[in-house]
């Protein structure tokens, strides 16, 4: 029973690790570079992003625990559902360094489009295993849809942005 509690916490915290590192590494680029980008009127305020990601990562992490637990740990049955989870999480974590760090809007767009596909596949594979875990991903997919549209608009509206940090 005590060990299951540790697994629950570990799985729930894991997505936050990459999210925090992405923020920490790129935190100086946000006020300097991101604020100068042309963004659509419907772009959420900057202060909403950490709150939203905290909620989304918590739901994602707990849902991954539910899937892992229902499939008996790292079994062969868990390979596809948890593999999709790991792959989409890696792309999720890769987006901030591409967007903020490298300032490569095109690569960030490619990343998030691939992320959308993997996250959708993950939700579909999870639905057959644990409906609660799958439903916990619905807000994440909604936020990804908004983030994808925002990335597309920023990429289209800021064509002069090139990879690299020249100002």
TrEMBL record:
<keyword id="KW-1133">Transmembrane helix</keyword>
<feature type="transmembrane region" description="Helical">
    <location>
        <begin position="6"/>
        <end position="26"/>
    </location>
</feature>
<dbReference type="InterPro" id="IPR004307">
    <property type="entry name" value="TspO_MBR"/>
</dbReference>
<keyword id="KW-0472">Membrane</keyword>
<dbReference type="GO" id="GO:0005741">
    <property type="term" value="C:mitochondrial outer membrane"/>
</dbReference>
<feature type="transmembrane region" description="Helical">
    <location>
        <begin position="47"/>
        <end position="66"/>
    </location>
</feature>
<protein>
    <submittedName>
        <fullName>TSPO protein</fullName>
    </submittedName>
</protein>
<feature type="transmembrane region" description="Helical">
    <location>
        <begin position="78"/>
        <end position="95"/>
    </location>
</feature>
<feature type="transmembrane region" description="Helical">
    <location>
        <begin position="135"/>
        <end position="155"/>
    </location>
</feature>
<dbReference type="Pfam" id="PF03073">
    <property type="entry name" value="TspO_MBR"/>
</dbReference>
<comment type="similarity">
    <text>Belongs to the TspO/BZRP family.</text>
</comment>
<keyword id="KW-0812">Transmembrane</keyword>
<dbReference type="InterPro" id="IPR038330">
    <property type="entry name" value="TspO/MBR-related_sf"/>
</dbReference>
């Amino acid at each position: 029973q005590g060990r299951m509690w540790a697994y629950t916490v570990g799985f729930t915290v894991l997505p936050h690790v990459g999210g925090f590192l992405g923020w920490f590494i790129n935190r100086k680029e946000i006020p300097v570079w991101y604020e100068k980008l042309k963004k659509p009127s419907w772009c959420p305020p900057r202060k909403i992003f950490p709150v939203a990601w905290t909620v989304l990562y918590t739901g994602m992490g707990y849902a991954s625990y539910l899937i892992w637990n229902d499939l008996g740990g790292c079994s062969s049955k868990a390979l596809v559902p948890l593999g999709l989870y790991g792959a989409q999480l890696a792309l999720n974590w890769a987006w901030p360094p591409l967007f903020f760090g490298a300032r490569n809007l095109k690569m960030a767009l490619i990343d998030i489009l691939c992320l959308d596909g993997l996250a959708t596949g993950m939700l579909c594979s999870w639905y057959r295993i644990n409906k609660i875990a799958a439903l916990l991903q619905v807000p994440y997919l909604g936020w990804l849809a908004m983030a994808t549209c925002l990335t597309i608009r920023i990429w289209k509206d800021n064509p002069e942005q090139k990879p690299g940090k020249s100002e």
